[in-house]
Design a protein that fits this description.
Radius of gyration of chain A: 18 Å
Helix content of chain A: over 70%
Number of helices of chain B: 26
Oligomer: heterodimer
Strand order of the largest sheet of chain B: 1-2
Largest interface: A-B, 24 and 16 residues
Shape of chain B: globular
Largest sheet of chain A: none
Shape of chain A: globular
Number of strands of chain B: 6
Number of domains of chain A: 1
Chain lengths: ~220, ~675
């Protein structure tokens, strides 16, 4: 164990893992296929769980193991399962998704967002130690996934964006607090699970009422 | 005694929710008993000067709601509970025809409880919570009994105005909180003592606007003539009698209690607002032919009279004339209690008339004095009181206000001399116009021949209603001939000058007696005036007796037909109408009223054969037309413009969130 702790410090494992998370989000911006987005999300969640485990080893916080386990169970297994089932049931074609912006422009804007976050969240204002870079990365993830939600037209990709954003928030949360109480972490996970189910219901309803899951049809609801 | 009252009040509310429908009305007696207990408790605390009881409600370790009964609080609690006792008695019979007796009963109890909580709150939190409760419950009471769209609209106007007012009050308290770091009123007073006048003036302005909205100060009065007629009469009696006095209480509490009340321009502002309210209130009242709207405008007028007293008190106090300030405040508080009593009496009377004659329009009444003798008599007593005629109570307090305003001539600076004297002139004008208005109200509604079939078939009100009105009328007379009772109640309120009032219960009231003991820096020419209300009453009694003796009691009475100008018979249509009666005033004050006339002719064959004529005349509602309507249309336009933000696109909404986030990031960095 002490050896692993040394390794985590010598090779900035935490930074590597969180950068990996950031890259997986940036990848999603350029991926148009729904199946690819879902895989990226699974990778992202695995990385999040790995980061938790690394923190658990490094700082000897046992309850983070539990959180990591539930992250894997919820985000790498259950949520993808539900999403796949929803897409199958609704017969959403897994192919290309329409977006308001083309891929290069989206990538440039995500890049600009990362630069913005890095230049404006000055290190050490109130975050020190391991979480210094993690906070910037997590804010970047949140903004990029929000950006994805803005540009994509299909409701399913809004759900994806929300899931990525939640990963970013989770990252920010536990990098600042070194693990919230387990009950809160479990609660958040459960929340997400419920969220995905409810969104599934909503999507079904949208599909029923508008024949499509394109969000621009929703403007006709305006009074 | 107080807790007994509380228990009875709570029991009343609970049993309204649970009791069988038939016996619901008698539960108002429980409220009446509760109010009587509270009135007794408050009066005893005021007379004996018992130390203020206090308790706090702990909500969380950092948040408590404090309640404390100081003398000022007890005085207002006394006014509330005396009125509630009689109004509850009235409600026993009045609410018999109610559509929603259960809800009304519970809300009515909550209304009384929330007003009591407002008066007893000792910190800003409990005050605001009680204040909001009072506003919301009264809103529901206004709209609960009727399903007419007009009442709904009136309720909306009321809710809007009261929430705007509350926003100002919250702002005032927040400002005081940020300057002192405490929500407790006494802590605020101590903390603000050394602060700058600019800060205190800002708090004063916010609080005056906020409380002025509730009190009905011109131009914030527009909800009164709408909400009062829409509400059931027992509720309007409480609203006009007590709830708008919560605004007065707030002004006294904040301006004199928390802020210290020693800045001259505050006094000038309050005095001017009071003068305007009193004159404009009575002028608009004159033009109203709906009995309850007329009374609502008279509330505006009387609030103005009370505010003139408070304004004079602040003005005198800022010049160090504590004894004069005490007199002015005593006059204001006295008038507060008086107005509570006679205005609720009048509203109850209007309710009886509306129940008996099934109309609120004076032009459809007439001849009610014969058909509803008790109601008519008590309404007349209330009218005499509100016109400030001896020997009723309105006279004493208005006379004191007069004296206080005239004392302004002893002030050092020109403006501090002139403004109180102008206030006195406004008060004189108000009194005369009020008398004209009630000659109209009583004359047109109660005298003459019935102007409509339902007025002719009017029935006298039930016993609990007449008993309640009779008790209030007796109270008007009692407080008119024994002002010492009230002055002794006021004496204990901790304000410089008030404690120096040494007067017997029925002895002469003299200004010298009231301000005795204070060194007067300025010699007062002509000395002080004084009068003896009980003496006036005795003279009046003796005079009446003498008249009876001289004319021969029950002696020569000749009955014959009235002169009918040679026309066969007199019909109700020949009577002087309310509109006709006020026509001269409409001409004199046409710059204020801006009367509008319209003659519509319909023809059978134009232009020779006229089928019908329709004549329509009304006055321009100045404040609605030139202040509120432009403002409302401005808000509407701004709302239409911001509507463009609402595209209905989810992506755009998400974009707004993102822009906000990035902007926050930039600001925060």
């Amino acid at each position: 164990m002490p050896l692993i702790k040394r390794w985590i410090e010598v090779f900035p494992v935490t930074d590597f893992i969180s950068i990996g998370m950031l890259l997986s989000v940036v990848a999603v911006v350029s991926i148009k296929r729904m199946e690819g987005c879902l895989r990226a999300y699974v990778i992202n969640s695995w990385l999040l769980a790995g980061l938790m485990a690394a923190f658990a080893v490094w700082l000897s916080i046992p309850h983070l193991y539990i959180a990591a386990f539930f992250t894997i169970a919820g985000k790498c297994v259950l949520i993808p399962f539900f999403l796949r089932r929803i897409m199958r049931n609704l017969k959403i074609e897994p192919g290309a998704q329409s977006s308001y912006l083309n891929t290069p422009a989206s990538l440039i804007i995500s890049f600009a967002l990362v630069v913005l976050v890095y230049s404006f969240i000055s290190a050490g204002v109130f975050v020190a130690g391991a979480a210094r870079n993690v906070l910037k990365i997590s804010v970047s993830i949140i903004l990029i996934s929000l950006f994805m939600m803005i540009t994509r037209k299909k409701a399913v990709s809004q759900v994806m964006g929300l899931l990525f954003m939640e990963n970013g928030l989770f990252l920010a949360g536990f990098s600042l607090t070194y693990g919230m109480p387990t009950i809160i972490e479990l609660g958040v996970l459960f929340d997400m699970l419920m969220g995905v189910m409810i969104l599934g219901l909503f999507l079904t309803q949208i599909k029923k009422s508008f024949v499509s899951v394109d969000l621009d049809r929703l403007t006709s609801l305006k009074g | 005694m107080f807790s007994a009252g509380l228990v009875m009040l709570a029991a009343g509310m609970l049993s309204f929710a649970a009791a069988p429908r038939k016996s619901l009305n008698y539960l108002y007696l429980l409220y009446a008993a509760a109010a009587a207990a509270a009135a007794f408790y408050a009066a005893r605390a005021l007379y004996t000067g018992a130390p203020a009881g206090a308790f706090s409600l702990v909500i969380s370790p950092v948040l408590t709601m404090g309640f404390r009964g100081g003398p000022l609080q007890m005085f207002f609690l006394f006014a509330l509970s005396v009125l509630s006792a009689f109004v509850s008695l009235y409600s026993v019979a009045y609410m018999r025809g109610s559509q929603t007796p259960r809800a009304h009963g519970v809300l009515y109890g909550l209304f009384i409880a929330s007003m009591g909580a407002v008066f007893l709150s000792s910190d800003a939190l409990s005050f605001l919570v009680s204040w909001e409760a009072m506003s919301l419950v009264s809103y529901f009471l206004v709209v609960s009994e009727t399903e007419s769209p007009g009442a709904r609209k009136a309720g909306l106007t009321y809710a809007t105005m009261t929430h705007v007012g509350t926003a100002f009050i919250i702002a005032a308290f927040m400002l005081a909180f940020s300057a002192t770091g405490t929500l407790d009123f006494s802590g605020m007073a101590a903390g603000l003592a050394g602060k700058s006048v600019a800060l205190k003036s800002a708090i004063f302005v916010l609080a005056f606007i906020g409380f002025g909205t509730k009190a009905g100060v011109v131009p914030l009065h527009i909800w009164l003539p709408r909400a009062h007629p829409a509400a059931p009469s027992n509720v309007s009696a409480l609203m006009s009698g007590v709830m708008i006095k919560a605004g007065i209480y707030g002004i006294v509490l904040v301006c004199l209690g928390i802020l210290g009340g020693n800045v001259a321009w505050w006094g000038v502002a309050v005095l001017v607002a009071g003068g305007l309210s009193s004159v404009l209130g009575v002028l608009y009242a004159l033009m109203e032919h709906d009995l309850k709207r007329l009374l609502a405008y008279h509330s505006v007028e009387n609030i103005g009279i009370i505010l003139m007293g408070i304004g004079a008190a602040i003005l005198f106090y800022s010049f160090g004339q504590t004894a004069f300030a005490g007199l002015a405040l005593a006059a204001a508080l006295y008038h507060t209690l008086n107005h509570a009593i006679f205005k609720s009496l009048l509203f109850l009377g209007a309710g009886s008339v509306a129940n008996g004659a099934h109309t609120k329009n004076m032009e459809e009444m007439g001849g009610l004095m014969k058909r509803m003798p008790a109601t008519g008599l008590f309404f007349l007593a209330g009218s005499v009181a509100i016109c400030a005629l001896p020997p009723f109570n309105g006279f004493v307090s208005e006379w004191l206000t007069f004296q206080a305003l005239l004392l302004g001539s002893t002030m050092p600076l020109a403006y501090s001399k002139i403004i109180p004297l102008m206030g006195a002139a406004a008060l004189a004008l108000t009194g005369a116009l009020a008398a004209a208005c009630f000659v109209k109200a009583v004359g047109v509604s109660f005298l003459g021949l019935p102007r409509s079939r339902q007025a002719g078939a009017a029935k006298e009100a039930a016993l609990p209603m007449t008993a309640a009105m009779g008790a209030l009328a007796a109270l008007c007379l009692l407080l008119g001939i024994a002002p010492g009772i009230v002055l002794a109640l006021i004496k204990g309120i901790p304000f410089a000058g008030l404690s120096q009032m040494g007067i017997g219960n029925t002895g002469p009231v003299s200004i010298a007696g009231i301000v005795r003991g204070a060194a007067l820096p300025f010699p007062i020419a002509g000395g002080f005036s004084s009068f003896w209300p009980a003496g006036i009453f005795m003279v009046l009694l003796a005079g009446s007796a003498l008249m009876l003796v001289l004319t021969g009691a029950g002696g020569r009475k000749t009955c014959g037909p009235a002169w009918d100008c040679g026309i066969r018979e007199l019909t109700p249509r020949m009577q002087y109408t309310a509109t006709a009666f006020t026509k001269p005033l409409r001409i004199i004050f046409k710059t204020v009223y801006m009367p509008r006339k319209e003659l519509r002719m319909s023809y059978r064959l134009k232009p020779f054969f006229v089928r019908g004529l329709a004549y329509h005349s009304d006055i321009t509602p100045f404040f609605e037309k030139y202040i509120y309507e432009p403002f409302i249309s401005l808000v509407g336009k701004a709302a239409m413009r911001t509507r463009n933000l609402q595209s209905g696109s989810l992506n755009l909404y998400l974009g707004y969130i993102m822009l906000t986030l990035i902007a926050l990031l930039l600001i925060w960095a």
